[in-house]
Amino acid sequence: MTQDRRRALTPEALTMMDTIARTGSFAAAAREMGRVPSALTYSVRQLEDALDVLLFDRSSRQAMLTSAGQELLLEGRRLLQELDAVANRVRRIATGWESELTLVMDDAVARRAVFDLVEAFYAEKVEGGGAPPTRLKLRVEVLAGTWEALLHGQADVAIGVPAQSASSSIHCEPAGELEFVFCVAPHHPLAKLPEPLTAAQIAAHRIIAVADSARVLTPITVGLLPGQDVLTVPSMATKLEALLRGLGCGSLPISMVRRHVDAGRLVSKTTYEGRRSGVMHYAWRDTGHAPGLALAWWLDRLRHDTTRKALLEQHEGLLL
Question: Does the keyword field hold Transcription (predicted)?
Fold first, then answer.
């Protein structure tokens, strides 16, 4: 019975229902569809038998839909639109656009800049009109977890990886330098100590650390001193919240904390390490073939100095 219903709900049957409802009569629908009214009536009865429902009120001289007929009409129109959308998407993908592209970003990358790029991507007009047919997937990882997603085929592009990969299947380019600043809340004990802070002074207080999200690769630990108490958090945003509450000390990208330092909510301190920064990279997988149009679009944007700078500096809109 289920198979009979599925076979009955063809695009042709749904189009027939739409035409009858739109024209208001079987005769008018038959003329528009190039069929004789009796053939159209027979097709409707076959559809009703397959679904075991009455779609039209036979007591009316007009083509009046029953409640079941109204529901089929609404759902049928939606299904026809989806079929058209799928057909258009397949045609566009045949021109070279990937069906899906996954981008993984390190948690230190500025979300605002990423979404500026996403917005620009969707604003592109492809052949035949409309936005690119590629479905975008965004992932956020931390430190080695960002590399891991790319190396294990879980992402096509990685943004904000801290070091170059040894894999020959990965292309890697520098995105720019990310500078970090050591911060504490104004009421934290380290806030009043003279600078630069020594390793012993820092080790005596809890550090806030963002957990490396790697599951297979060896996790990277940054800034943790031997014997130091640590509060591990899942993201840069939660680390910032912990620092603002005075729950510990730690370093964050200077662009992420600048407004809090300027407002007096955090105090930046120089340490025995001096200026701390690292070169961030963007990388993508080498499949041995020319990149698809979506990947090519992202790589073209990532080659721009202004784009790379924004990805490392536009943290002003970070919300807690």
Answer: yes
3-state secondary structure of 268: strand
Where in the sequence is the domain holding 17, given as residue range(s)?
Answer: 2-93
**pLDDT, mean over the chain:** 88
User: How many angstroms separate the CA atoms of 50 and 44, rounded?
Assistant: 10
Q: Is the pLDDT of residue 10 over 90?
A: no
Tens of pLDDT, residue by residue over 241-252, are 999 999 999 999
Give yes or no for a contact between 54 and 48, defined as CB atoms under 8 angstroms apart.
Answer: yes
> What residue type is assigned to position 275 of the chain?
R
Instruction: Please list, in sequence order, all residues whose beta carbon lies within 8 angstroms of the beta carbon of residue 56, skipping any fewer than 6 positions away.
Output: 20, 44, 63, 64, 65, 66, 69
99 falls within a domain:
no
Question: Domain for residue 231, yes or no?
Answer: yes
Residue that the structure tokens 């050591």 belong to: 182
pLDDT tens track for 137-179:
999 999 889 998 988 888 999 999 876 555 677 889 999 999 9
- Tokens 């012993």 sit at which residue? 200
DSSP states along 166-228: --TTEEEEEEEEEEEEEEE-TTSGGGGSPSSBPHHHHHTS-EEEEPP--SSSPPP--SPPTT-
Which of 72, 93, 114 is the last residue in one of the domains? 93
Q: Tell me, what CATH number does 28's domain have? A: 1.10.10.10
Total number of domains constituting the chain: 2
Q: What is the pLDDT of residue 320?
A: 39
